[in-house]
Design goal:
32% helix; Rossmann fold; FAD/NAD(P)-binding domain; single chain; 434 residues; four-stranded mixed sheet; binds flavin-adenine dinucleotide
Length: 434
């Protein structure tokens, strides 16, 4: 078995784990990160929510409140269990921590994201509806883009089996006029030269391998359009995205915009690629393996054992940051009872430990209320060390961050990325004080 030694071991390579690892590197610490796959960050829409309108579920979209600071205050007041409380005792302090974390992981020079900390924007998705979010990848179609555009053209690839141009147009026209944009949409069917039907994700791979050929085919068609905006389905491959957008802009003379996708999406994949590049650039040792067990001496964790197809490894560290996500990523599991997967930590719904008994209560579905299963997770002390049902810290050198924390519901409160990034940073800061 391979033996690895480090100062800090981060378990998980999503938004939370990346924030923890980058923060550790910034303070000059030796850090390793073990990660088995992409997790929720890679599966998500690739947009980054900070604070949505928690009353949105009961109000009309034109009335959704977009002010991030106000939404944040409301979340903190209405939900005393929300992990944002771990960041500070006022909305102002919490927002300031969120900003620091965002700016560390997405420094403005990187040019990857668009958006701001003041208000949520309406970003159109592949269904022709929209998502309210704080940050999204550059050149995505927003309501603001439409307010000054009379005419847009959608490039439709009829071979896509999860994007339907006519369906998109119907919803898009309904929603854009309801939100006071009067943009007319034309559809331009393009023939990229494929004979089978593909998903947007598969088509993105095809474009990556055949970029020149596809751009050439599109070029002749684009000369004919006279729209202010050219809209693309969510099909742009990560590393060639900006080059393709620029070529299409030159060929059409229009502003080129891509649609947000429903998960799993190319934008989620691009987000994950971005996080991986950031870790590489910062010199974080990333180990692709699944953490399966651990050794401890009383309340102190000594090492974590991890394995992949080729290797078994034991990673020794002084401090451990658990950022292994929720159910989708495998951080939480329900095998007989709800448990955290690596250290066997207890799982809570609000302040109640779940174990076996709460399962029935969790399934009482009320369609207009947030489902409790989305806010399950581990509970921590204020310094982000997991606690048990006796309210005691379980391991003195283990800290938790991200969607594994109980109390947030990313669907209902729109805090997914904000919680992951900011608690990722704060977990490392708290660990470094130990
Ligand atoms: C379908 C979907 C759509 C979403 N859409 C949005 C959105 O539009 N906007 C938004 O802000 N939020 C969204 N969210 C929520 C947001 O993506 C998550 O809250 C956030 O990405 C969580 O980040 P994380 O780092 O805590 O966990 P994850 O991103 O889930 O990362 C967990 C990491 O832990 C690793 N891991 C787990 N177990 C082990 C193990 N045993 N050994 C090694 N590694 C392990 C995984 O491989 C992964 O790398 C969405 C979530 C889902 C599921």
């Amino acid at each position: 078995m391979k033996k690895i030694e480090t100062e800090i071991l981060v378990l998980g390579g999503g938004l939370a784990g990346t924030a923890s690892a980058l923060s550790a590197r910034k303070s000059g610490n030796r850090v390793a990160l073990v990660c088995k796959d992409g997790g929720a960050s890679a599966m998500s829409s690739g947009a980054l929510d900070i604070a949505g309108d928690i009353l949105a579920i009961t109000s009309k979209p034109e009335h959704w409140r977009t002010d991030i600071a106000e939404n944040l205050e409301e979340i903190l007041i209405r939900n005393p269990e929300h992990p944002y409380h771990l960041l500070g005792d006022s909305g102002e302090k919490v927002l300031s921590q969120i900003k620091t974390a965002f700016e560390m992981v997405f420094p403005s020079s990187a040019g990857f994201l668009q958006g701001d900390f003041a208000r949520n924007q309406k970003v159109f998705n592949q269904m022709g509806t929209f998502k309210l979010t704080a940050f999204f990848q550059q050149h995505m179609l927003t309501l603001d883009d439409l307010l000054n555009a009379e005419h847009a053209t959608l490039i439709n690839f009829p071979e896509l089996n999860d994007f339907d141009g006519e369906f998109f147009k119907k919803n898009f026209e309904y929603w854009s006029s309801r939100l006071d944009a009067k943009t007319r949409l034309s559809i331009l069917n393009a023939n990229p030269g494929i004979n089978s039907s593909l998903s947007c994700l598969e088509f993105a791979k095809f474009i990556e391998q055949n970029t020149e050929q596809i751009l050439e085919k599109l070029d002749a068609n684009l000369k004919k359009i006279s729209s202010q905006i050219l809209v693309l389905p969510p099909v742009l491959p990560g590393r060639k995205r900006l080059q393709i957008l620029e070529n299409l802009k030159q060929a059409s003379g229009a502003n080129v915009r891509e649609l947000l996708a429903l998960p799993p999406s190319v934008a989620g994949k691009r987000l994950q690629d971005y996080l991986e590049d950031s870790l590489k650039f910062a010199g974080v040792e990333k180990l692709w393996a699944k953490a399966v067990s651990f050794k401890c001496d009383g309340k102190k964790i000594i090492s974590v054992q991890a394995q992949n197809r080729f290797d078994q490894m034991e990673i020794f560290a002084h401090k451990f940051i658990l950022a292994s996500g929720s159910f989708l990523a495998g951080g939480l599991t329900k095998l007989g009872e709800f448990k955290e997967s690596i250290f066997g930590l207890e799982v809570f719904s609000n302040s109640h430990p779940i174990g076996k008994i709460f399962t029935e209560k969790l399934t009482g579905l009320n369609i207009s209320a947030p489902h409790p299963v989305f806010s399950l997770g581990v509970k921590t002390s204020s310094d982000q060390r997991p606690i048990g049902s006796d309210a005691r810290i379980v391991f003195e050198n283990l800290f938790a961050a991200g969607s594994i924390l109980s109390g947030a519901n990313y669907i209902f409160d729109g805090t997914g990325a904000g919680v992951a990034l900011a608690t990722g940073l704060s977990a490392e800061e708290k660990a470094s004080k130990l």
